[in-house]
Amino acid sequence: MNMRPNRLFLSPPHMSGSEQEYIAQAFESNYIAPLGPMVDQFEESIRNFTKAPNALALSTATAALHLALRVLGIGAGDIVLASSFTFIGSIAPILYQNATPFFIDSDTQSWNLDPLLLEEAIHKAPQKPKALILTHLYGQCADLDKIIELCKAHDIYLIEDAAESLGATYDHHQSGTFGDFGVYSFNGNKILTTSGGGMLVSPHKDLIEKARFYSTQARNDAPHYEHTEYGYNYRMSNILAAIGVAQMEVLDERIKKRRQIFEWYREQLNTIEEITLMPELSNTKGNRWLTTLILHHTDPNAIRLALEEENIESRPLWKPMHLQPLFKGALSLHNGTSQNLFDKGLCLPSGTQMTQDDVVRVCTILKKALA
Ligand SMILES: *Cc1c(COP(=O)(O)O)cnc(C)c1O
Is the pLDDT reported for residue 4 higher than 80? Predict the structure, then answer.
């Protein structure tokens, strides 16, 4: 990574100012462990914000997805439908469970999973799919109504990968709270960060309790630790949860700022025919985690390099899973949408410490490179 000073990063951490104080409290309580009052408080703040009735703080969102599959009984040979246009952390847990991913392409309205292709995939799958891992990409909600209807009609568990979409709403309800499970990430570049961390939420209390059990090595209640099953060491540290508690206090502000940054970009770029910014479904309000766009005729790599010359970080859109060498020959239904987005797309710096001047500077360089 280029670490020249004054580099404009894609999405760097942005502390609220209260983190050190809460970390100090965690030290005073001596809960320097993967449990403690800050972990409880962090879970509570997520429940309050999202209105999800149950929450479990974990080491990563990838771990949270893994636990969701495990407690739903997804195992060897089971088919798990999944968004193809996503990050590998969304998909690797399917492989951890020796299940079989079936990748579904995006629609052009949301850039997320296409409900029409989902329906086709359900009918074409070699056996009845057990679950769907649905990603809300770049903080934008998928077309949930149609997707939920299909999952219900075909008895398919819905797991929302809301790693990038904490705070995004669909019909005024929080992303991550529509399915059997929702997952949020607090990795270093997400809208909030604990340096690394994840949260599993669910309407099913019994399943969250089961996930809690698996997340701490599946220890049965005995002084010597009795084991009838195996688990994982996936729980969140109380120190990192202290950072999370402080970060949650500024979530509303952070969403507002990300959306403001997107508007600043829009003002600068909306008259340029060559560029289309990521759309937003009418009944949704995304968190605009990253401002992303596609260039209709220009190689996005040329723009990326022009920005890099000026010490500005940008990044291609995610490479769809059905195009990854790892998944050569995997089950998939594609319509060209995510490949097109990958070929033409770019993520622009969107960190919440950016000023309007920063946005103008990025756009000036971008426009010059287009000319
Ligand atoms: C970041 C991310 C993950 C993984 O989150 P971790 O907390 O780093 O494990 C999963 N899915 C998507 C879409 C992500 O962006």
Answer: no
